[in-house]
Amino acid sequence: xxxxxxxxxxxxxxxxxxxxxxxxxxxxxxxxxxxxxxxxxxxxxxxxxxxxxxxxxxxxxxxxxxxxxxxxxxxxxxxxxxxxxxxxxxxxxxxxxxxxxxxxxxxxxxxxxxxxxxxxxxxxxxxxxxxxxxxxxxxxxxxxxxxxxxxxxxxxxxxxxxxxxxxxxxxxxxxxxxxxxxxxxxxxxxxxxxxxxxxxxxxxxxxxxxxxxxxxxxxxxxxxxxxxxxxxxxxxxx
Amino acid sequence: xxxxxxxxxxxxxxxxxxxxxxxxxxxxxxxxxxxxxxxxxxxxxxxxxxxxxxxxxxxxxxxxxxxxxxxxxxxxxxxxxxxxxxxxxxxxxxxxxxxxxxxxxxxxxxxxxxxxxxxxxxxxxxxxxxxxxxxxxxxxxxxxxxxxxxxxxxxxxxxxxxxxxxxxxxxxxxxxxxxxxxxxxxxxxxxxxxxxxxxxxxxxxxxxxxxxxxxxxxxxxxxxxxxxxxxxxxxxxxxxxxxxxxxxxxxxxxxxxxxxxxxxxxxxxxxxxxxxxxxxxxxxxxxxxxxxxxxxxxxxxxxxxxxxxxxxxxxxxxxxxxxxxxxxxxxxxxxxxxxxxxx
Lengths: 238, 343
Prior knowledge:
heterodimer, A: Cyclophilin, 14 strands, 29% strand, elongated, B: alpha+beta, 7-stranded mixed β-sheet, 6-stranded antiparallel β-sheet, 6 helices, 22 strands, disordered C terminus
């Protein structure tokens, strides 16, 4: 394994870059360093942001000497892999197509699959949360069946509903709050990945695994009502 | 508890504090005051912790009305003039607004953002550790507009003043190259540091667009990684964008350089159309600048207002006296000072 590059992001952050591509092995190294740093905290580190291929470490430069933090991070990378943390796995209900997934039929046509075949192909894999970003709780998932990939829409929508399940390029995602999106909408989960006054506020974290469970529009409505009242309608499997 | 009612406010008026930390891994922006030094000045003048939530304005001024109890108010921001009951105050002073008084904040004539702090802060519940409004995620109180009513916690009543109001200094905006300077031709960093840049009118709390020569990154699509306020990201068009306090936490454009933390407040206050330079600095310079800013913040120690300006003395005595006649709390700093001034 090659050593990561330590890239300066101003005086208050360092990016520990493991590579430049989308690769589950790189994301696993990012996650391992993130967990190792959480287990061996360093004074002055404010928070970390794991992404596909790099860990951004935010710190207070008046508390932390940067060179010492860099040595600490490299030592953690070099250490033998910590005891394997088995990732959390979630079963996430999704109502595909219809009012909840306006682009499903068109996406199925584009892929050469029937709508039912498209749904089955999307719900088959165990996905990994590669990164959370863009908007609070917006989870980028790795593991999409390549047949379902499609470049983003030419004309982004200014608003898509909260908790939409969408496809953009080779990735699929679970949205959180209402917002703009150029991704293709294929469904919507009644689970609320982000609910500010709930504990926990967020359901998913980078590194979690996601399985989709197709549900009917009627089931979506029932589950959505329960979720709004604070119930967890995404089931934790592991 | 008193209230403050918004009578008039421009778009982009919201509550902002020192920021919402600890949630960036979940995609939550830090937010917080665009100019934390100006926020600190306003808060210091009303006796608050320096990062207490205050009202932030953008380009326009605003007017408010004090509720049914007196409230000590102060302003911050370049060229922002505070007036209470129609009377303008010199910079670096707070004033007690009596019930029903109008409180005016002028437009920030030499900047972008102004601040109004109230003694004791606003009586609202923080969301995820902060009172800062972040529009896109729906966090924090709704943006402020005419008719908004904010509860005000009780605080000190003594007007304070600062012998010297700390400012932002001058000179080029300092930035550290990276993290993706290797995505650009060598000339790009030279061009970044030798151009008279201007911000255009599209600026908002998420980012400010630099107008000048194009600095296109090499072709290709970068895999997203983390970004932060100060990141200078460059999309394929070559027009750089400096990310600001409300920026997203991750992004897919190469970042040629990062504005140092000590210069973010100053950068936020540069008006559109005013030329400025960027210069590349080392980490040592950046950390020394951060330490200098921290010292400036520590040195903001306001004094009870006094002095020989007859008009000001008259005004403060009058207002302070009205309040102190009803104030049972003799240990309150405001009561002590008001008594002295009254004597």
